[in-house]
Amino acid sequence: MTTSIKKLPDIEQVLSGNGACGGCPATMALRIVGKALGPNAIMLLTPACSVASMGMTPKLGYNWPCINICFATAGSSASGITHAIEIMKEKGRLQGDLPTVFSWAGDGGTYDIGFQALSAAAERNDNFIHFCYNNEAYSNTGVQRSGATPRGSYTTTTPTGKRHPKKNMALLMLEHNIPYVATATVAYPGDLYDKVVKAKNTPGMKYIEILSPCYLGWQFDMPETVQMSRMAVKSGAWLLWEAENGKITFNNPSSQIISGKKEPAPVDEYLMKQGRFSRLLKGPDAESRIAEIQGDINREIAFMRERAKITY
Amino acid sequence: MKSVTKEHRPISWPTKGSGGDTGSWRTHRPVVDIKKCTKCQFCWVYCPEAVIEREEITIDYQYCKGCGVCALECPVGAISMEKEE
């Protein structure tokens, strides 16, 4: 059972009046993460929207010690800090519970630029949580194509639509044999909360990816952030799953799509609501473009269904 | 170690309003009709700004950016967006 909204703790780690856009999914997700992690944590930020959202010195929008690091170093910086904390504990300079170290990176800092350091940290199984809030483009710098951008999507560097499918980063992290991997999204806060609590209590490297529909990058109306996130899950374009020690389990409502109890919603409605797809779906080739996107989604569902059957 | 007062350290401190009075960004203001409210707390959980009070459903208009997520997510339509003057 997922935690109900009424049972979420009161603690607020994201402070009002920060520099994020109205309706920002990153601060929405970070609030829930903050409720699960509590104040005893160290936050690492690679260049992303969340760094801009921190606000201006001498004020800080997040109630944690925050360290701004280079783009490619989410994995290596977190490893260094984790080791330093462990040594300080050994030498008796730190008392009480050790702080949770977590990096909060966008899809650029995870899929593309940060991948090498992150992969190395996963291989070493260092004790921290890596969060990727995935808005499927480099939104902070004006929406450029990233490894997370799905096929057929408009960005400023793919004006006729991206020609390649996105990669399944969560599965790649799972293949590093780390103890906990999960995917979540902002529309299901109880599910996200449970996953972060589970990650906090697991030693070793943890990876949680949060789909964050960005209204500027995806080109929909500002209030529809949560609706878009829900539609992504219901159409099967985003699957909610978690893997503890390599065993994949799917969470509602993705588990119903995977088990075949419920047909995924047709992708058309989800695509047409977003300007990044619908602006390219007006010509005579619209049918084939939609079929291509639907094909990618169906392939991913079929692949994950079979991958979940492999246990060891 | 030489003591340095908190004000003079060259680092930031967690404070509300790090982006300024973000309420001035708003074009539409969310207004709660508390009679319709069922206290489901959906608006509180989905608010990206943490400006909605959980029990009383009051909104901090100094920092509310007016995104309208609360109004759209409210299952009983107790929150409406009214144009700012």
Strand content of chain B: 5-15%
**Assembly state:** heterodimer
- Tell me, briefly, the overall form of chain B: elongated
Question: Could you name the CATH class of the domain at 36-85 in chain B?
Answer: Alpha Beta
Taking the alpha carbons of the first and last residues of chain B, their distance comes to: 54 Å
Record the strand order, biggest sheet of chain A. 3-1-4-5-7-6-8-9
Compute the number of helices of chain B: 2
The biggest beta sheet of chain B reads: 2 strands, antiparallel
CATH topology of the domain at 36-85 in chain B: Alpha-Beta Plaits
Q: Mean pLDDT of chain B, nearest integer?
A: 88
Second rung of CATH, namely the architecture of chain A? 3-Layer(aba) Sandwich
**Whole-number tally of structural domains of chain A:** 1
Q: What's the helix-strand series of chain A? A: HEHEEHEHHEHEHEHHEEHHHH
Describe the structure.
Chain A is an alpha/beta fold and 312 residues long. Chain A has one domain (5-307): 3-Layer(aba) Sandwich (Rossmann fold). In chain A, 38% of the residues lie in helices and 14% in strands. Chain A has 13 helices and nine strands. In chain A, strand 6 (180-185), helix 7 (189-200) and strand 7 form a beta-alpha-beta unit. The mean pLDDT of chain A is 92. Chain B has 85 residues and is α+β, with helices and mostly antiparallel strands. Chain B has a domain at 36-85: Alpha-Beta Plaits (2-Layer Sandwich), CATH 3.30.70. Chain B has helices at residues 42-46, 69-73; strands at 13-14, 28-32, 79-83. Chain B has a two-stranded antiparallel sheet. The longest helix of chain B has 5 residues, at 42-46. The relative contact order of chain B is 0.28. Strand 2 (59-60) of chain A pairs parallel with strand 1 of chain B.
